[in-house]
Amino acid sequence: MSRFVKQSKSKRIIKTTAVIALMTAVFFISIGAFGLSWQRVFSFAGLYPDRDSGLCVSFIDSGKADSTLITCNGSVVLIDAGEDIFADSVISYLERYKIEKIDMLVATHPDKDHIGGMSAVMEHFDVNTFVQPNLDSNLIPETDCYTNMIDSIESKNIRCIYPEAGGEFSVKELNFRVFSPCRSYDTTNDSSVVLKLEYAGKSFLFTGDSEKQAERDMVSNFGEELKSDVLKVSHHGSQNSTTNEFLQYVSPLYAVISVGKNSNNLPSRACLDRLKENGINIYRTDLQGNISFTVSKNGDIKIHTEK
Predict the structure, then answer these.
(1) What is the DSSP string of 155-211?
(2) Is 103 within 8 Å of 129 (Cβ atoms)?
(3) Cα 235 from Cα 207, distance rounded (Å)
(4) Residue 179 CB contacts under 8 Å (≥ 6 apart), including other chains
(5) pTM
(6) pLDDT tens digit string along 208-258?
């Protein structure tokens, strides 16, 4: 009797396996027949953000570093590329969406947690335009990652832009305004390129590692123009950034902090308290992984996290 039960159980397992295999085969065939991609299927399932319609801004989980991918109807912009040890993570994230070319690559400032992966990114993808601050010579770092970045720009003959506050530039239908650097600063952090992106009535402010002085200058020069729906919190939530005055002018609905677990006690309690006191919804890459905001053509925002 026990032998019969075992045989019946074995037959059920075989049948179940055969059915699963058949369904898997049908699934693969269906994807190809309807011209779908894995990325599209995963988007339908809610596993990936939908990049096929409208704007998508993804804050990539790159440890304590910064890297933000922006796509819109074929346009690709990457702001910062994390540390060199996380370059593979950034590259893999772009490969997930079959990206082969970057229209604009931005190095907000030359600290290694923002440019460490730049050389690897430029070696892996075709890059049309490179954006970086025009630094005083005393702020140019003597680091391998900076040297490798410059060597990659020169060897690939990539066009460079050095934006100034008050300027504007476009990547196809994406329009960026430059709010900083407003002048020469004593630190690389305050020298960060700060960009505002607007699409379908929604706006994003990317602040690099700007600190109090740069924030004061932006408030003085641009005031209400800083207003944005989504703020990339400066300097990983440092207590020396994201002042109350700056927050009151930006007045975001959402704040995103790019930070790693237990990385130098960031984000600071002071920064978190200021965000909460201003009623801002906080998202963190250390807690929620890759964080994506999609904006439809009619201006609806959806938020997708991967943890």
Answers:
(1) HTT-EEE---TT-EEEETTEEEEEEE--S--SSTTTT--EEEEEETTEEEEE-TT--
(2) yes
(3) 8
(4) 165, 194, 195, 196, 205, 218, 221, 222, 225, 226
(5) 0.86
(6) 999 999 999 999 999 999 999 999 999 999 999 999 999 999 999 999 999
